Structure formats: structure tokens, C-alpha cells
Amino acid sequence: MRTTNYLTLLAAPLALAACSNDQETSEPAGTMMADNMPMSDDMPMMESPAAGQAGSGEGSITEIDEADGKITIDHGPIAAVGWPAMTMAFSADDESMRKVAVGDRVTFEFRTTEGGGGELTAIAKQ
């Protein structure tokens, strides 16, 4: 029985040493492992619509950033441009920002911009 205890005591530090975090990895610090995950054709991905596509939706104003000229809207799905429900910031002119306040339910129209964003073309309280 003593031999089993001694072997266990000797094996435990060796097992812990094998699990050390000091091992070098090919991933730089801060890189997510999922970045190297192979893509599959079975995985649906949201594609950014081409710039200039028109769409409309309904939602709630969550933020108005006058300095950046943006209105953030928590909106439902927008089928015309293939967007799921989400909260996103739309570029907006001064007139649009004066029409609404945080918490307002709104209907809005927009056109898509480069990089998958949107620019409001009309907005109205519901």
C-alpha cells in the first residue's frame, strides 16, 4: 500500500508539469482559436448587402450621438437587405436627430453603405 501511495505522489507532479501553461503556441496572445476554424458551406453567414440598397424597418431608439451624427436603433429583421433583428447605429442628418428621442418607437427608411452600415433617409415616431 505504501508503494501505491509513493507512486501516486511521484506521478501527480509529473502530470501537472505536463499540463503547464508555459507551452508555446502558434497563436499570438489575444487571438481567438475560432479564427482558424475551417469554414463550411453548411454554415449560413450574413452577407453585407451592396451599398445603396434601400430598406425600411421599425424599432426603438437606444442612443442619439449628435457628435458622430448617428442614431442607434434596436430593430426587427429587415428582409429587403437580409438583416436579422439587431441594434445598430445609422448615420443621420441633424433634422432626423431632432425628430426623435431615446426610447421612441419609430419607423425608418435607409440605404445601405459600404461596410454593411446604413444611412437614414427618413424617420418618424410611431
In words, what does this structure look like?
This protein is of the alpha+beta class. 18% of the residues lie in helices and 32% in strands. Strands 3-2-1-4-5 form a 5-stranded antiparallel sheet. It is elongated, with a radius of gyration of 26 Å. The chain starts with a helix and ends with a strand. Mean pLDDT is 78; it is low at 27-45.
Strand-helix topology:
Layout (H helix, E strand, L loop, with lengths): L1 H17 L35 E12 L4 E6 L10 E6 L2 H6 L5 E8 L5 E8 L1
Brief summary of the model shown:
The chain is α+β, with helices and mostly antiparallel strands and 126 residues long. It contains two helices and five strands, in the order H-E-E-E-H-E-E.
What key attributes describe this structure?
126 residues, alpha+beta, five-stranded antiparallel β-sheet, elongated
Segments where pLDDT lies below 50 for 5+ residues? 27-45
Question: What structural category characterises the helix and strand content?
Answer: alpha+beta
Tell me, briefly, the overall form: elongated
Strand order of the largest sheet: 3-2-1-4-5
SSE pattern, N- to C-terminal:
HEEEHEE
Total strands: the figure is: 5
Strand content: 25-35%
- Report the biggest beta sheet as strand number plus sense, adding barrel if it closes: 5 strands, antiparallel
Mean pLDDT equals 78
Structure annotation, total helices: 2
- What does the oligomeric state look like here? single chain
Query: Helix fraction?
Result: 10-25%
